[in-house]
Amino acid sequence: MDKKSSFAGLSPLVFFLALFMGTGIITGNFTNMPLLLAFIFASGFALLLDKKGEKTSLSDKIDIFSKAGGEPTIILMVVIFLLAGAFYSIADAMGAVSSIVNLGLNVLPANMLLPGLFLVGCILSFSMGTSMGTVTALAPIGVGIATQTGISLPLVLGTVVGSAMFGDNLSFISDTTIAATRTQGVELRDKFKSNLFIVLPAVIITLIILSFMSGGNAQLDTYEYSLVRIVPYAAIIVSALIGLNVMVVLAIGISSGAVIGLAMGDFNMVELFGVLQRGMGWMEDLAIIAIVVGGLVGLMDYYGGINYLLETVLSKVKTKKGAQLGIASLVSLIDIATTNNTISIITAGPLAKDLSKEYDINPIRTASILDIFSSAFQGIIPYGGQLLLAAGIGKISPVEIVPFSIYSFLMIVFGLLSIMFDFSKVRSTNN
To answer: I want to staple 154 with a disulfide (CB 3.0 to 4.6 A). Which of 29, 324, 394, 400 is the partner?
Structure first.
């Protein structure tokens, strides 16, 4: 059945953006309007609307919202988010986070501080799957390096933020990776190979640039670490690379972390339950947002808004490259508006999937585009959580850090180049 298109069907999204952005601009703080609350208000607004030329009862609209929010892909994503939170919590509690940071710092050459710091951040963010966790762990160390060597503090913190976005984009347990692969129905390792081919030049160029910007000959302190405590991260990476289901991957990481933590006396069995619950609690807000956004998109689709947006984009798009640029633009704009790259992927995902089908774009490539551009812009918006956190730790303005988030800018450059020159032709492992 052909769907009617209607601009009015997009009004809930316009309402959300006006509410969220307006509150941030007026108050000067974009955290004053919680994302979940803004989406709840937008959903309430959506329930007041009606399909063009038709009258739908409130109970029917609530049913549409509930079915869309409870769509199997979204519910599976919610469960994976909770498991990812549990893994990060247990890795933190049993010392895996501090061990992997300290291991990297111990092999950091004093005359290559910035490239070394960037590599440590890349390894840490890839292992943990959380950019905020990476900034939390490395920013204080970065401040110490800047103080000890005289290297520009904004440059050091920009290096930390850039390395954090590396993991957000590539990690097997990052919520952005999970969202991108689940919305497009592709495998983790396929998206990883596609992304890595695109961003590897950005990593190399970042390291070269940072090597010229490093200075000072200060010797860093010796940091203690335990190779045994890094096992959960190694288990996550290996199991994901061999193609195990993401649920199994996370289960392996959680169980190995639990066994090692119990054996080394980091917590007892009862405390372990609390650690797992704490991590799931960290992801509850995101999980609920994913459900609400799914329901909201379902209503907008019913009202003809998604079809209108698709037709509008398609009217400007004439080629496969144009469609890919459209997907990149859409997810980037939503990230700029919401300051959350995961939510931008969840929101743009359905439209991106439609565009992929329309222009015969490999869904692996679509997942890569969604993840690359949302993560890149997340690393350069001064009111985003990563830059706000880094700036708060360094006691400087986040605007000062933006020009030095070198890797984030290069992600955009090479993302665009990959579209223009058709990089990364990765085949699905299911084929």
So the answer is: 400
pTM of the predicted model as reported, rounded to 2 decimal places: 0.72
Alpha-carbon gap, residue 402 to 226, rounded angstroms: 34
Encoded tokens for 290: 């994913």
CB 163 within 8 A of CB 138: yes
| Residue 337 contacts residue 347 (beta carbons within 8 Å) | no
pLDDT tens sequence across 67-104: 988 988 778 778 877 888 888 889 889 988 778 767 76
Query: Where is 16: in which H helix or E strand?
Result: helix 11-27
Token pair of 46, please? 């959506």
Dihedral sign from CA coordinates of 330, 353, 343, 171: negative
CA distance 245 to 228: 24
CA dihedral 118, 119, 120, 121 (to 10 degrees): 50
Can you spell out the DSSP letters for 348-394?
HHHHHHHHHHHTT--HHHHHHHHHHHHHHHHTT-TTSHHHHHHHHHH
Phi-psi region of 224 (alpha: psi -120 to 50; beta: other; left: phi over 0): beta
